[in-house]
Amino acid sequence: MEKMTVFLHSDVLFSAAYSNCGLSRAYLLFELQREGCLDLYVSSFVCREARHNIALQCPQKSGLLESLISETTELNDSPVFRGHLLPNRLPDADRLVLSTAIANRIKFFLTFSEEVFSQLFGKRLEATFILRPACFLN
Amino acid sequence: MRKKSEMEQAVLGEKGEVAIPQKMLDEHGMAPKSPVIIESTMTGALVRPAVTVEIREFSDRETEEFLKANCINEAEREATLKKWKK
């Protein structure tokens, strides 16, 4: 059976590193990947944004973040903003990240950003479902 | 993961310039005068659009929101792991 493909937004990658392997949904995704249950993907922009914010808020976790990134597959940022699919009010950064997941036909796109993605949660854009990590895990 | 690659043949100009077919420009969101990145790969030169989007700094409120949504208790964690390992 084909493994589930899961794309992590920068807030999820950031939270996995910030929470330091504790009781963390984001970190649990990495544990599930190690068990062979799914494959984790990020993009170049996601990595840059997570690195930037960890360096600002919690620089001592930078090593852990790099270790987590090394466990994922890093995709090139999609140059095509799938404007016809995405709400106009979606900020450019989120548009770029979600477009990358859609362009690569990733099955699940996970984010903690309630405010920005509230209207997209539970929806499918082409092959990609947008979910909160809690919904995905349950 | 990506859809199958499409190929077109072209001829290099005197200065090394090449015309990218309109269909490919449209597909990749490129237009005349838009910035591109030329990457040297194992098999040749890859031309792709240069995407410039600014990195955001998470506010304290956003970080709090992320970390709150990220929390899971031990029982839920164990139950989730058990369910997924089945």
Topology overview:
The complex is a heterodimer of chains A (138) and B (86).
Chain A lengths: L3 E5 L1 H9 L6 H10 L3 E6 H14 L4 H9 L2 E3 L16 H12 L4 E3 L3 H4 L6 E2 L2 E4 L1 H5 L1
Parallel strand pairs in A: 1-2, 1-4, 2-3, 4-6
Antiparallel strand pairs in A: 5-6
Chain B lengths: L21 H6 L8 E5 L4 E5 L10 H11 L3 H12 L1
Antiparallel strand pairs in B: 1-2
Write down the secondary-structure element order of chain A. EHHEHHEHEHEEH
Which oligomerization state do the chains in this entry correspond to? heterodimer
The neighbouring-strand order within the major sheet of chain B is 1-2
Kindly report the name of the CATH homologous superfamily of chain A: 5'-nuclease
Read across the widest sheet of chain A, the strand sequence of neighbours is 3-2-1-4-6-5
**Share of helix among residues of chain B?**
25-40%
Count of individual beta strands of chain B: 2
Helix and strand content put the structural class of chain B at alpha+beta
Terminal-residue CA separation of chain B: 26 Å
Query: What is the CA-based Rg of chain B, rounded?
Result: 23 Å
Helix content of chain A: 40-55%
Q: Please work out how many helical segments of chain B DSSP would assign.
A: 3
Can you tell me the CATH class of chain A?
Answer: Alpha Beta
- Give the termini separation of chain A: 20 Å
**Structural class by secondary-structure content of chain A:** alpha/beta
Q: Major sheet of chain A, described briefly?
A: 6 strands, mixed
Strand content of chain B: 5-15%
User: Can you tell me the number of structural domains of chain A?
Assistant: 1
- Principal-axis shape of chain A equals globular
Radius of gyration of chain A: 14 Å
Average pLDDT score of chain B = 85
